[in-house]
Amino acid sequence: MTHARDERSAICDLFDRLGPDAPTLCTGWTTYDLAAHLVLRERRPDAMGGIALKPLAGYTASVQNGLKARHPYPELVGLVRKPGGVYGVLSFLDNAVNTLEYFVHHEDVRRAQPSWEPRELAADLDELVWKRVSTGARFMLRRSPVGVVLHRLGGGVALGGNRQGPKVEVTGAASELLMFCFGRQAHARVELTGDPHAIELLRSASLGV
């Protein structure tokens, strides 16, 4: 098993346990919507453009809703559970592309439920998460109106955000910094220090890929 497969299996188990109507951290999406998104991402490359490009978002939404209309929830979860498209053939690509995608969406479901707590990650997964955060910080924080200094508990610093003006120090475990940089600021267990106004600007900024 790879970390991507582990996270895929874990989110599907959670989908099965919670059912189709549970909330997620993805605004307006239930677990049914998120399952449809994951299937679309792997099996409908023609509709992937709207995930990142607003002019194509309408088509992507229509395909996602069509997947829900055609597939009962358990069937859709079954499609998520088995890697599709090129990821089903090339497991190394699945691990490279999907580890963080499935980790973040697994947390999107976990953290939308009551009484969630952070997971303790295996050491190699923690290192992988930090490597992706530290190398991708500039991109993920590109829309931050303030400078950001990420401090990983246990060691490691990464920079991002606006290179001019005030800076905010963000301290936490690698997984919490990842969730923060992916735009889940309100649900990341991190400590923010700096100018109070700059902190509020960062908390409300649109971050992520």
Automatic annotation (TrEMBL):
Record InterPro entries = CHP03085, DinB/YfiT-like, Maleyloyr_isom
What SUPFAM superfamilies does this protein map onto? DinB/YfiT-like putative metalloenzymes
Tell me the superkingdom of the source. Bacteria
Recorded hits in NCBIfam families, A to Z, give: maleylpyruvate isomerase family mycothiol-dependent enzyme, TIGR03085 family metal-binding protein
In Swiss-Prot or TrEMBL terms, this protein is called TIGR03085 family protein
